[in-house]
Structures are given as structure tokens and as C-alpha cells.
Specification:
The chain is an alpha/beta fold and 220 residues long. The protein has one domain: Alanine racemase (TIM Barrel), CATH 3.20.20.10. The chain has helices at 7-21, 40-48, 59-72, 89-95, 105-118, 144-154, 172-184, 198-203, 213-216, and strands at residues 30-34, 53-56, 77-80, 98-102, 124-127, 158-162, 189-191, 208-211. It has an eight-stranded parallel sheet with strand order 7-6-5-4-3-2-1-8. α2 links the parallel β1 (30-34) and β2. Bound molecules: pyridoxal-5'-phosphate (PLP).
């Protein structure tokens, strides 16, 4: 009989299988384990299974949880996937290895200053409001070229685009649009796909999938 598989093995398998179907290298797809709301005790088993890349959506929560975990495992990398207030830019630059939520001019300036002060370049994704949803974070599609130009000017490194497609709609057209925009701007990385749709995202070129509940179970 097969050994019972862990959620992490299951998600990794599904990514690898999808990558093979899409004729992509599975190694080229980064699995970010989104540990928001989950305590250190829930994170430890994933670290024990070899997962080293994690994501959080709040600066304060990450500050409380991660320094101790990282002390024990210095090879962990931590990504910020949630909205960032400009007044938290210094904290974010100090704590995170990548920021997925660059979405406005004021944040470009705040991050440029913070990176300069810290002497530390943190790669960023520009988050695109791909479904033009009023309540959602992200830069409007029409404003992406100007924001990318501002980031270049300010020497804030942008490596790719990120999106969260509208809930309850087929995500594929949104992922395809994000991929097209990234290609048009010569950006190699695509942060897209969550627990419910990461296979679709991998088919359409995701380089970073952000998976929470499929690894940790449902959040409160
Ligand atoms: C919470 C969150 C995720 C993970 O969502 P799941 O559906 O639990 O996989 C991914 N991306 C962002 C931006 C999130 O806030």
C-alpha cells in the first residue's frame, strides 16, 4: 500500500504533473506556502518536510512569527503577498525577501527610500487588478506601464507581475492576460495561482504559486 501522502507532497506532485503536461520544467515553479493566520506549530511540519519558501500577508503578523523560525532555519525565504502601507515599507524591506504587492506610485517611492536606507534590494512583483474590481488591491491595467517606468527610474527591482483573479469566475483568461502583459514588458516572473487554481496557473506560465489552505487546511 502507498504511504499516506502529506498535503505538501500532494501539492508538489500536482505542480510537477501539470508542469510536465505543459512541457515546463517543474523546478522552474516556486511553491510559496502561505502561512498567514497559522501559528509556528502549524508551520514547523512543513519546514521539517523541506519547505523553505513561505508567504505572509501582514507585516506585523510576520514580525511576530518569523524571526524565531528563521533563527532555527536561516535558509528560509519569506515573501509578502498582502497589501503594504507605505509607512510599513522599512519593516517590509527588513523582513521580506520579495514583495508581491507593489501597486502604486507612493509605494514605489516608499520602497525606494526604504531599500536605499537599508542597503538592501528586495525584488518586487507589480500587483495588477486584473479583473478591474473596485474593492481589490492592485494597479489598474492601464496604469501598469507608467508604474513600471517609475519603479525603473527609482531603481526598485521589478521581476514580474502578480494577480488575484475575481472570485467565482474562471481564472484562466485572467492568468493568460497577466502572462501576456508580463511578456509585453519583458518580465520573466508570474505570481499567480492559489489553492483552488494553481494547476491552471502553472499551465499558463506561473513561476510562483501562492498556496495556503491546500497545505495548512482552512483558515478560521
Ligand atoms: C491567502 C492568500 C493566498 C493563499 O490562498 P489559498 O486559497 O488559501 O491558497 C494567496 N495569495 C494571496 C495574495 C493571499 O492573500
Amino acid at each position: 500500500m502507498d504511504e499516506p501522502r502529506t498535503p505538501l507532497e500532494d501539492v508538489r506532485d500536482r505542480i510537477a504533473k501539470t508542469a510536465r503536461i505543459a512541457k515546463r520544467d517543474p523546478e522552474a515553479i516556486e511553491l510559496i506556502a502561505i502561512s498567514k493566520t497559522h501559528p509556528a506549530e502549524a508551520i514547523a511540519p512543513l519546514i521539517a518536510q523541506g519547505q523553505r519558501l513561505f508567504g505572509e500577508n501582514r507585516v506585523q503578523e510576520a514580525q511576530a512569527k518569523w524571526p524565531a523560525l528563521r533563527e532555527a532555519h536561516p535558509d528560509i525565504t519569506l515573501h509578502l503577498v498582502g497589501q503594504l502601507q507605505s509607512n510599513k515599507a522599512d519593516d517590509a524591506v527588513a523582513l521580506f525577501d520579495c514583495i508581491h504587492s507593489l501597486d502604486r506610485s507612493s509605494l514605489v517611492s516608499a520602497l525606494a527610500k526604504a531599500m536605499d536606507k537599508a542597503g538592501r534590494q528586495v525584488p518586487c512583483f507589480v500587483q495588477v487588478n486584473i479583473g478591474a474590481e473596485e474593492q481589490k488591491g492592485g494597479c489598474a491595467i492601464a496604469d501598469v506601464p507608467a508604474l513600471l517606468a517609475e519603479a525603473r527610474e527609482a531603481e526598485v527591482p521589478v521581476t514580474g507581475l502578480m494577480c488575484v483573479p475575481p472570485l467565482d469566475l474562471e481564472p484562466a483568461p485572467y492568468f493568460a492576460l497577466l502572462a501576456k502583459m508580463a511578456a509585453d514588458h519583458g518580465l520573466a516572473q508570474l505570481s499567480m495561482g492559489m489553492s483552488g487554481d494553481f494547476e491552471t496557473a502553472v499551465m499558463l506560465g506561473a513561476t510562483h504559486v501562492r498556496v495556503g489552505s491546500a497545505l495548512f487546511g482552512a483558515r478560521e
